Structures are given as structure tokens and as C-alpha cells.
Amino acid sequence: MPISFLHSKGTEAPIKIPAIGLDLFVRMPPAASSGEFCFIETINAPGAGPPRHRHREAEIFRVIEGRYLYEADGQRFYAEAGDVVSIPGGVEHGFCNVTDKPARQYILMAPALDAAAFFTELAGVMHDGIPDQAALNAFGLKWHVEFLGPPVNRNDQPTE
């Protein structure tokens, strides 16, 4: 697997999606790994997370700061700083920051998703808040992402 030299600076501006409390940095775009994977960093606002969804890409999350409640295939569990969570491609999932401060994680997606284009377009779709599921899925068709329901709620109870 060829990896290109890349220097992703910490001073780069994030892609912001206020409707889901997300600041996202693309730390390694698909071109740097010949499309094998991409690497992103997220900062999630307190209580925030994406709508439940599924896609063909597998994801590996590493919690850097804070605590998250994850849901994968209906099972809910906490992940804290230092924890790693892997979600296979095609699995319904979501998560939310359960703390009162911003939480941060790194995410590796394989195969790569053009995260800069996807999240920039998603920010446009969500400029007035989270649209209904039909509108999200109309957007998701282009990206092979199916939106399945509301974000995980930090008041939900873990099942593990």
C-alpha cells in the first residue's frame, strides 16, 4: 500500500457542522494512501453526535479526550480517552459526546472516503439544522450512506 508524504498542520481550519456539534479535520485525504484509507479528527460538542447511519467503509475510532456513548447494531457502550472502537462496514452505528466539554477522537476509514467533500456537502445540507431522514438519505445516495435515525442520546443507557 503506497503512502505519500503528508504534513497535516494543526492550524488548519475545521469543517464545521453546527447542527450536529461537529468540527472535523481531514488529517490524511484518500489520495495520500491511494484510496486505501483516510484519517480524520473530530471535535464533538457536549451531547452531540451524528444521526445513526451505516456505510460500506469500516471505521476505527480512538478517543483522545472525553467520553462517548457508542451504539453499534443496537448495542450501546461507553468509550473513554485511550479506548479504540472498530465498526465494520455495513454496521448501523452512531455515537455522542456524553461529557459537558468538547470531546475529541481520531477516525480511520477504510476504504477511504473523500471526507473533505462529504462533510462539506453535509454541512450545506444541515445549514438550517438536521433535516428529515428522507432529505438526509437523498444526500446519502451519492455517498452510499444510509441515515437510519436520530443521533444517539447521551441519556440512553448502555447495554453492556
From TrEMBL:
Q: Which CDD domains match?
A: cupin_RmlC-like
Alphabetized Pfam families for the sequence: Cupin_2 (PF07883)
| Taxonomic source organism | Xanthobacter aminoxidans
Q: What is this protein called?
A: Cupin domain-containing protein
Against InterPro entries, the record matches this protein to: Cupin_2 (IPR013096), QDO-like (IPR053146), RmlC-like_jellyroll (IPR014710), RmlC_Cupin_sf (IPR011051)
| The Cupin type-2 domain, residue ranges | 45-104
